[in-house]
Amino acid sequence: MGIAKVKLIDLTSNVSNLDRVLMRFIDLKNFHPVLASEIVEKVSGLTSFISENPCQAMLQDIVDIETKYDLNLPNEEYRDENYNLNQMYEYITDLKASLEVEVAHIKELEEYIEKHENALIQVKNIQSLDVPLDDLFACEYVFMRFGRLPNDSVDKLRFFQNRPFVFKSFNTDQNYVWCMYFTTQEYKREVDNIFSSLFFERSFIPEFVHGTPKQAIEDIEVEISHARAKIASYKDDICSITDGCHNNLAHIKGQLLFLNRLFEAKKYVVGLGDKFTITGFMQENDVDLFSKAFEGLEEVDIEINEADTDRRITPPTKLKNGWFSRPFGMFVEMYGLPGYNEMDPTPFVAITYSLLFGMMFGDLGQGLVLMLIGFLAYKFKKMRLGAIGIRIGLSSAIFGLLYGSFFGDEEILTPFFTDILGLPGKPIHVMDGDFTMTLLISAIAIGAVLIIITMILNIIIQLKKKEYVEVVCSHNGIAGLMLYGYIGVGAALQLGLGIPVFNILTIIPFVAIPLLLIFLKEPIHRKVHHHKMFPAGFGGFFVEAFFELFEIILSYLTNTMSFLRVGGFILSHAGMMLVVTSLMSMVGDAGLLVMIFGNIFVMALEGMIVGIQVLRLQFYEMFSRYYSGNGVAFNALNQ
């Protein structure tokens, strides 16, 4: 449990052997390679093999061809040591160009058809005109317009009967009259203004339209038919091209998929002269697999060391926990992974999160439903949150049993305790007014215990890091533990049992000295590291340290009081369910529906809020005291 142990592995060989090594390297599993840039930047004389990857652009061209021409090429790698990227590039370029020529012809014909179809619509509306259009447009002294008028505008033309124009209608539909008007060049502007005021919409007859409208319609339909036949021919040509290239293109794609991984792997290669090195980490149990992967290759040296041997590289962290705590690694990762040599907080998070959620969302029936939902989500969707749901649902069910609550009914489980277990009643009466103060005090006590535990964890972590000043003088170290623990235990003994604890003999060692150590932590730290204790002068230090100390004392109080939300949500959950049960008794026969939808509403709303609040307690009240989360994730090849 905790953090998986890893080994640092260095592979060294000649540059001439690079491709053969990389061909095996890219198939490694559970190997965390270190980017060459992390090493090259820290050591002079080293070089990187990173270069522009030509495979990606070619693969994108192939994907574009697949998508555009509906090709179903396999996504399988094909390995060939005798590859030729230039030939692949030329083949793809030529294929793309030939297909684009056919597509350009089709696009040109589609535009041609669209233009003729638009003209066909215009001409069909004037097909009753039995005069060649060429003769009309050739008139030198007569000016004409074709178009359409709204039906209600036609009646208004009688107001302009004395104006110099002739109006002729051809076709009428529900809203418009298709028509033409003509006049002389002298009155063109005046007549245009008249028809414009009547909302005349002009139609343009293209220049390629000839003869009478009926003859023009026949000619246009023939042209459209011919164009469509040509499009079909070009599409046949495209099918012939794609069918003929399918196997070659699939072969090239397979090669490029393999070569792309090969080029990408070069970002992990460090060069020095005619040698290259690949560095990475692997779990202790898998180290032998690394050596076996390169068996048979000559001039390959593999060196295996402890994870922290090379101080230029930060060992990666891979969480390795048991069945119960494993899903809660998601929350730890959200905050940040622990360092390789640090403590994994996942088990502590799993226990405390489950307990706090169960307390705040205690209901036997709802807990079992949450377990079922979590199981289904994890089983069929592989959701880590579903696995967490199983565990917190179990905790909710256990606390719900202690509260005697089953889908909000606070009395249904009472016979179980009295008749079967022989108890006077359920162990915890959440809705009993006399119990409220006890509940809130218990919530504060739970918070105080958890804060003390996090301080102890911080002391252990700082001891492992050999940060002795932090161990002794930090407000989360021994000084803070003595101060906070003394006040907490003293308050409990004084208020709960009437035992006087606060006196001069105990205040000096447990309050005055810890406060002084916390106050002087920074100067002591500088003195231990042989620096000047007060580089900016004692006066400036005193003012800054005084307000920092005040903030620390205030944080002890606020962090502890923050756990009041545990008791608050216990009461809130019970109160909301009391509302549901009250509504059930008021609606008569519809009580079952109220119970179902009321429980769904409470589970959805309060379940989400409680989950967020418990996570907040983890991050702000506990993690901030002992956990930094600055680790590097173990990102394996082919994981």
- Count of alpha/pi helices: 22
Radius of gyration of CA atoms, rounded to a whole number? 41 Å
| Main pleated sheet | 6 strands, antiparallel
Name the poorly predicted regions: none
What fraction, in percent, of the residue positions are helical?
55-70%
Nearest-integer average pLDDT? 88
Number of strands: 14
Span between termini: 21 Å
Strand content: 5-15%
Number of domains: 4
Shape: extended
Question: SS-based structural class?
Answer: alpha+beta
Topology (SSEs and partners):
Layout: E1 2-3, E2 6-14, H1 18-25, E3 31-33, H2 36-40, E4 47-48, H3 54-69, H4 85-124, H5 133-137, E5 142-150, H6 151-154, E6 166-172, E7 176-184, H7 188-197, E8 201-203, H8 213-265, E9 269-272, E10 275-283, H9 287-293, E11 301-306, E12 316-317, E13 319-320, H10 329-335, H11 346-360, H12 364-381, H13 384-403, H14 414-420, H15 436-465, H16 468-473, H17 478-497, H18 504-519, H19 521-528, H20 538-561, H21 564-587, H22 591-626, E14 632-633
Write up what this structure looks like.
With 639 residues, the protein is of the alpha+beta class. The chain is built from 22 helices and 14 strands. It has helices at 18-25, 36-40, 54-69, 85-124, 133-137, 151-154, 188-197, 213-265, 287-293, 329-335, 346-360, 364-381, 384-403, 414-420, 436-465, 468-473, 478-497, 504-519, 521-528, 538-561, 564-587, 591-626; strands at 2-3, 6-14, 31-33, 47-48, 142-150, 166-172, 176-184, 201-203, 269-272, 275-283, 301-306, 316-317, 319-320, 632-633. Helix 3 (54-69) packs parallel to helix 4 (85-124) and helix 12 (364-381) runs antiparallel to helix 13 (384-403). The longest helix is centred in the middle third of the chain and has 53 residues, at 213-265. The two termini are 21 Å apart.
